[in-house]
Amino acid sequence: MKLESDFDFVEKICVLGQTNVGKTNLITRFTENKFLPDYLATVGFDYKVKIISLNNSKKKIKLIIFDTAGQERYKSVCKYWYKRVDGIILVYDITDRESFDSIPSWIKEIKEFNNDLPVILFGNKIDKEEDRIVSSEEGKHFADNNNIGFYETSAFNGDNVAEAFKFFGNKLIYNLIERNDNISLSTESHKKIQKKKCC
Questions:
Q1: Which domains occur in the chain, in start order?
Q2: Sheet holding 45-53: strands in order across?
Q3: d(CA 70, CA 147)
Q4: What's the rounded mean pLDDT across residues 184-191?
């Protein structure tokens, strides 16, 4: 699956969640190490690209990360991606109960369209701890019950953002290897992906 000299794998990821949970800033923080306090809400979708290393190996993964609008009127557009991407990042705002309560409906919809699509959950805005409404334990409990990964992040100061995206990118490659006998990694790299746990 080697495509070009500057990367070995390509993975497409779609970031979903209600409006104002920080999807655009999470992507911008990861790809450009920037925070945009006055950005305009995404209309339809946008995308950014980031190349990361596969664990400690010399192999590279090109992540194409699609940013989607969170407004209800654009939700039908999101369905377009469920069979066109390799993984989904669901985002909620730890200071907004409604954004967390919407996650089960996203999970249900994803499974209806593509039951095998890998999903990870990000609880964003941990820099606003004093305004927290959704506890870490509640987020992790939900993720565990739905057999998906979980990270708490801050697009504002960058806490856990790179680690979370890189974990998911590596996990997607592991899933790809499990499905394709023609792709292999060194034993050491393979074990690192298997044993890695998200927080």
A1: 9-195 (3.40.50.300)
A2: 45-53, 60-68, 9-16, 87-93, 119-124, 149-152
A3: 24
A4: 46
